[in-house]
Amino acid sequence: MQRSHKIIYAIYILVWIIMAIHPKYPQDWLLENVLVFLIFPLIVWMDTKYKFTITGLILLLIFASLHSLGSHFTYAKMEYFDVITHFFGFERNHFDRVVHFLFGLLTFRIIFEMVSPTVLTPRTALLFTLTMIVSISALYEILEWLAAILFHPELGIAFLGTQGDVWDSQKDTIAAIVGALINLVFHARYEKLFIELRTKF
């Protein structure tokens, strides 16, 4: 594994450790990090297999760090976002919605890099990546709901972060889709990246 990749992983681990210190709601923090415990080792393993680009890993680092920040405070009560909430006169804290949007925007490339070696054309890779973003986003909302009612029903509102919005899950999924769709504007760059990735295998 390249040294630059190890540095990125080390930075994330440092951020994660800092955000794990005295979280606002420890039980909620644990629920928010269950997937991290599973996915982080998987990403490292897949990096050794697919040799991710430094750009893809940096974008993933940004998203993962924001997730750690959200899990520290809980998404609904991320106090550093209150300034934006008050400035625009929002009725609720939209930090969770922003992170869902960034999930689609920032993880698109790393998923594209995973998909590219297994498909024949860049357009297929883009379509499959978009489908993956939609599927993961929808599945996450379902798992989030199940985790809340099965393990800690009393933390349900804090964990789900609906803030009284009955359409919160649908809006979060749409935010992720919009973030992913923005990547399609740069389809020419992705087509070039596809060719570069295919030459590795």
* Secondary structure tally, helices: 10
Shape: globular
User: How many domains comprise the coordinates?
Assistant: 1
Rg from Cα: 17 Å
Characterize the biggest β-sheet.
none
**Whole-number mean pLDDT:** 83
Please bin the fraction of helical residues: over 70%
Overview features:
mainly alpha; globular
What report would you give on this structure?
- The protein is an all-alpha fold and 201 residues long.
- The chain has one domain.
- 75% of the residues lie in helices and 0% in strands.
- The protein has ten helices and no strands.
- The protein has helices at 3-19, 26-50, 54-73, 82-88, 95-106, 108-115, 122-150, 156-160, 168-183, 187-198.
- Helix 3 (54-73) packs antiparallel against helix 5 (95-106), helix 5 (95-106) packs parallel to helix 9 and helix 6 packs across helix 7 (122-150).
- The chain is globular, with a radius of gyration of 17 Å.
Indicate the topology.
Elements: H1 3-19, H2 26-50, H3 54-73, H4 82-88, H5 95-106, H6 108-115, H7 122-150, H8 156-160, H9 168-183, H10 187-198
Describe what is shown at a glance:
By secondary structure, the chain is mainly alpha-helical. The protein has helices at residues 3-19, 26-50, 54-73, 82-88, 95-106, 108-115, 122-150, 156-160, 168-183, 187-198.
